[in-house]
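Progress report, Aim 2. The chain analyzed during this reporting quarter is listed below.
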Amino acid sequence: MGPSLEHEQLSELGAIQLSGSADEAVLGRPTRAPHLADQLEREIVDAGWPVGSLVGTEAELLERFNVGRGVLREAARLLEDRQIARMRRGRGGGLIVLEPDVRAVTDATAIYLESLGVTPNDIFEARQVLDLFAVGLAADRIDEQNSTRLRELLQQEQEADELQIMGGSHRQIHAAIAEASGNPVVAVFAEALSLLSEDQDELRAGRTGAVSRRAVAGVHRAHQSIIEAIISGDGLLASHRMLKHLNALHQDFVHRSERAEIRPHDPASSGQTGRVLSRRIRHDIAKMNWPIDHNLGSEAELLQRYGTGRGTLREAVRLLEHHAAVEMRRGPGGGLIVRAPDGESVIHAVALHLTYRGIRAADLFEAREALEMAALQLAIERLTEEGTDRLTRALDGNGSSSVGFAQSAHDFHVLIAELGGNRTLQLFVAVLARITAERLEEPGVQRGATPGNTLEQVSYAHRRIVDAILDGDVALARRRMRIHLRSLERAIA
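Predicted structure tokens for the chain:
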């Protein structure tokens, strides 16, 4: 366990008292817990996210923040849900800083997108952008360590396929390619998309015999050819092969989405873990178009439907409740109730995880360019009369000092991504625009204003981009957007 965090290292949080009366503090009302969780989160982030360090004992935190035990424990639970810190009990205990789990972030992203009803076309449209971008970067930046890792995964995939073992090797290869890109944004987003499209491991669950063997052999050959092109440094060839591979996966994904759901006693359900079952439940909810407040059934009914044990089901439910996808309601008339995941919470969680990973301004804007160029082209291709009106209204308020530099730099880009009609790209752009806005608000950046980057100049850049969009001039719109993004990068670099 690391040493207790120094107060002077933690911004000015130690001197800040939560709003509310002393009576409320004594009562420990949990309504104040989110505010305390947010302040503790900022403290940990400002301190550089020192994993394993002690923020303070329960007694110290109660005294420092002048809150009740109920408020503090609820705040600690919220921090644990966010994979930021948890309260350790017993001797030497207290609030301990955690290492964030990327799987929790990618799961949250996938669940939220499923709740929006994203289509296979949306998913693979976004995958084309990210995976093709990843292989191009990887081909330029591949080192000996990553080369060895990719070839080891290829060998593991071949062995798993020969034994017909579903061990996640296909998804691991896509994740390893994204990691080899050297950009943590690409790595996190690509993993989320890979989970959404379910890759070849899920495909094998519904096929047997010769058909299954041909399918997995084809995927393995595709991976092998992509990796060899990456290792050789041929980005164009790697991109061409990745595109061909993604198109094949897309066809299989669409085929599987049209098939009947797996029956409760299907062999695929035997020996499943809570995480696997949670994905099956999510898949079933998504097939019903994510019906909010719908009762999926009692625990007894779910046990029978999925052919699983009580421990596995409860683990699956806990995972889904953690992401606000469902709620298990007890008592008469209870059951597993479908909920609506909060998009704002997802954006915050992903932005926080990327902050923990220490993304540089170069990483941030490298990913923003790739995503926003794709979203911009889609916005031009799909622009409607309503979209034109929204762009015009956005420009009318864009130059107002009440909007602020950072907010202006955020809202305009999210709007264009929204007009592109791909909710996956929209979410990713929103995450990166949020991180940018937060950095523009940092004291040293002076709210983003630099000699060549004032609110008026940003508003002018936005107007010129909109002019090109309304003219349908993709090339000019892309050029102006690229220049604008690079000016924002200079403001926070």
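The first strand starts at residue 54 and ends at 56. The two ends are 34 Å apart (CA to CA). These observations will guide the mutagenesis work planned for the next reporting period.
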